[in-house]
Amino acid sequence: MPTGPAKLPPPYRIKVVEPIPFLSAEERRLALTEAGYNPFNLRADQVTIDLLSDSGTGATSAAQEAAAALGDESYAGARSWFRFRDEVRDLTGYPHILPVHQGRAGERILFGSLLKPGQICISNTHFDTTHANVELAGAEPRDLPCPEAADLDSDEPFKGNIDLDALERVLTGPEGHRVGLVLVTITNNGLGAQPVSMANLEAVRELCRRHAVPFFLDAARFAENAWLVREREPAYSDWTPRQIATRAFQLADGCVVSLKKDGLTAIGGLIGLRDDDLYAVCEANLIATEGFSTYGGLAGHDLERLAQGLQEVVDPAYLRSRAASTARLTQMINDAGVDTVQPPGIHALYLNAGRLLPHLAPHEFPGHSLGCQLYLDGGIRCAELGSLYLGGMDDEHQLVTPAPFELVRLAIPRRVYTDTHFEYVASVLADIAKAPERVRGYRIVSSPRLLRHFKVRLEPLAPGVVA
Q: Ranges for the Aromatic amino acid beta-eliminating lyase/threonine aldolase domain (predicted)?
């Protein structure tokens, strides 16, 4: 008799299913051509496995849908708001909670209320909309990732940390008076889904207090960061994920959160604050642009799903299963001959496209090329995090400053895909890895100034042609 399964199954069973499309190779080629070779422009019904984002793409639970049926749609003071507020207060400890329709709305309100033109916002890594919203507030986003993040292959457990020495140099240097905010993203989405340690957060708090600089968390994946802290930081091995998450929130002066990730819903976000005066400014901004302060652009049923989701997301059984699923996919891809950022995070894994496609120079966008090939070969949609997204361009869309790495992010929707789906993804990558030289580079045809990766249009280079 077997003593038990080789691996634990997910802590849920499937109750509702949705069909997924399987296009022919020619249909995929035509679809990508019409999309300007930008996966963001593809229609969802043209995608077989959608790993473009984990934001708002997860599956809700039966308990969340049951709660949604009780949603109170009153304009002000709805019952659903008070349930949501109380749940968030209990989790974060912040006295002031503002709901918003998603994280970037919270960024706009917070940065517009807190940052002044000419100031600096320091982060471990600003992600795309965060970077843009800092700039739109007239401030300068500056990334200070820890040195360990530069080694994609090492097993350093907390590559998401901010560089404490660099942060202290800025705060004590001639630009120190310009620093208006320190924002730490947990987990560090821009650098391989790597977690931030509690020791790092504690040190940031002390530096910020010493220099009277606000310290905020961008906490879209607070629960996943808490799980990785529990697994990798010995001092917290006996803490629950919820206890760790609460401690992280307590270390900061406030937070901005996209709840489309660890809120386990399709929409929603929040701003959490301690300061009364900052709350008053943010609330006025919210009411003018998002909605009244007890709904913030969300329906009552959204608030109910979020309140329930915030309970479910810190369940150790759920987090253990999700982390194990990503780790298995990472191992299958590594076994197929494709390197990934190590150690694996939870919400996504990052393919080292620069290493897989050495025949493509950065200005030929190897990360984007690999992403396009995944769609052409298997209907798999994903996102580039390389020179197309992060590189510096001139006015003619020519690459001037390459990104430090050429990566492709495979973002994992929560409670959506099975191991069989992931085996398919690994098999498509394995076929690409057998003949990587067939993958062609791309050139930009048109591009917006901000957030170009969302709406850029490209075309493939002819064989043997260099951009």
A: 50-426
Task: List, for residues 325-335, the tens digit of each pLDDT value.
Answer: 999 999 999 99
Rounded-to-integer distance, Cα 76 and Cα 82, Å: 11
| Count of residues in the chain | 467
Q: What is the dihedral of CA 243, 185, 418, 31, to 10 degrees?
A: 160
> SS3 sequence, 15-55?
CCCCCCCCCCHHHHHHHHHHCCCCHHHCCHHHCCEECCCCC
Dig out the tokens for 347 from the structure: 């919400």
Q: What is the pLDDT of residues 401-414, one digit of tens each?
A: 999 999 999 999 99
String of DSSP letters for 385-400: ESHHHHSEE-TTS-EE
Task: Report the alpha-carbon distance of residue 377 to residue 165 in Å, rounded.
Answer: 45
**Alpha-carbon gap, residue 336 to 16, rounded angstroms:** 32
Three-class SS of residue 125? coil
d(CA 161, CA 68): 37
Yes or no: say if 211 and 244 are a contact pair by the CB < 8 Å rule.
no
Q: Tell me how far apart the alpha carbons of residues 282 and 288 are, in angstroms, rounded to a whole number.
A: 10
The per-residue pLDDT for range 213-270, each reduced to its tens digit, is 999 999 999 999 999 999 999 999 999 999 999 999 999 999 999 999 999 999 999 9
Structure tokens at 356: 């897989």
**Pairing of the two strands 457-460 and 383-385:** unpaired
How far CA 436 is from CA of 72, 97, 104, 109, 190, in Å, comes to 54, 50, 37, 45, 25
By annotation, the residues acting in catalysis are: 75, 127-128, 218, 220, 261, 453
Residue type, 82: F
**E strands along 95-202, which residues?**
96-100, 120-123, 140-143, 179-185
Q: Determine contact, residues 38/242, Cβ cutoff 8 Å.
A: no
Pull the structure tokens for residue 110.
Answer: 């917070």
Query: Residue 173 in 3-state DSSP?
Result: coil
Considering only residues 190 and 371, tell me which one the structure prediction assigns the higher pLDDT.
371
What's the rounded Cα separation, in Å, for the pair 199 and 194? Answer: 15
